[in-house]
Amino acid sequence: MSDTTEKTSLKKAIGQKSTTLEAEMSFFDHLDVLRKHLIRAVIAIGVFTGIAFYFNEFILDKIIFGPKKPDFWTYRMMCQLVDKFPSLGADMCITKINGEIINTEMAGQFNLQLNVCVMCGIVVGFPYLLWEIWRFIKPALHENERKSASGFVFFASFLFIVGILFGYFIVCPLSVNFLTGYTVSAEIKNTFTVDSYLSSVATLTLGTGIIFELPVIIFILSKLGLMTPKLMRSSRRYAAVIILIIAAIVTPTPDIMTMLIVATPLFLLYELSIFVSAYIERKKIKAEKAFYAN
Predict the structure, then answer these.
(1) Taking the CA atoms of the chain, what radius of gyration do you get in angstroms?
(2) Three-class SS of the chain
(3) pLDDT tens over the chain, length 294 residues
(4) Which of 67, 66, 210, 57 is nearest to 126 (CA)?
(5) In 3D, which of 270, 273, 251 has the Cα closest to residue 89?
(6) Who contacts 283 (Cβ-Cβ below 8 Å, separation ≥6)?
């Protein structure tokens, strides 16, 4: 009887060990698959970075340093608005950007070129990165989950691009104008390092692109049950205060109209996120009713 018990225990131990080894192999297999997807994404970003090196003069002069020039598209549009609506105030028409950009390091300009090209590679290659991530996740999803998330790459890429454009043409130039012209004493001259300038432009532009991914993030959190439309609606007043603070910081004048131009898309983005969360909640309730009905 004792021998039989020992044999049974041994068989169970061997079975459990086999299951554990199979799970570990499966885990490492998944890691290997993920590694391959990420390698392809990195190669794509590397290719776009190389293309950016070829067009680096245009990218630096027209794109990176564009918000530092008075003839930038945003500033010209603001001056046209002032011409049509003088009540907006002459301060809204920006014709001069204060402050000078300098390089204080021997490798500063080389690092600038390298960082700018890598940043461009990441921005352009971001949709492909999302596609590779989607290809990795897709096999683990059920058929209904695949259908509900089929537009993930398109919508996430679309929102990211819209956020990048909004950040570059609205948030970035208004912030650059405000920060370069802000002084606390006439004795202090505004002279900025090229690293500081690039960091500000990159943070504002890429940061806005990431912020515009809010509906996608809310979609995922709602799917996981971590976010509900009720919670977002109850937090609307706090979100409104935060949005207005952000808009007030980046606008060049205390004029309420200019601040609303920046704040309106952020309000719409938050309301869209509530709609997305409510949509997910309705689908969950409908699925639960259908399950219990059967």
Answers:
(1) 26
(2) CHHHHHHHHHHHHHHHHHHHHHHHHHHHHHHHHHHHHHHHHHHHHHHHHHHHHHCHHHHHHHHHCHHHCCCCHHHHHHHHHHHHCHHHCHHHCCCCCCCEEECCCCCHHHHHHHHHHHHHHHHHHHHHHHHHHHHHHHHHCCHHHHHHCCCHHHHHHHHHHHHHHHHHHHHHHHHHHHHHHCCCCCCCCCEEEHHHHHHHHHHHHHHHHHHCCHHHHHHHHHHCCCCCHHHHHHCHHHHHHHHHHHHHHHCCCCCHHHHHHHHHHHHHHHHHHHHHHHHHHHHHHHHHHHHHHC
(3) 455 555 555 455 554 544 544 444 466 676 788 888 899 999 999 999 999 999 999 999 999 999 999 999 999 998 998 898 888 778 788 888 888 899 989 999 999 999 999 999 999 999 999 999 888 888 777 777 677 677 888 999 999 999 999 989 988 888 888 888 878 888 888 899 999 999 889 988 988 888 888 888 888 888 777 888 888 888 888 888 888 887 777 665 555 766 777 788 889 989 999 998 888 888 888 877 776 776
(4) 210
(5) 251
(6) 148
* Helices 194-211 + 108-137 axis angle, to 10: 20
Neighbours of 72 (CB within 10 A): 21
Cα(38)–Cα(125) distance, integer angstroms:
12
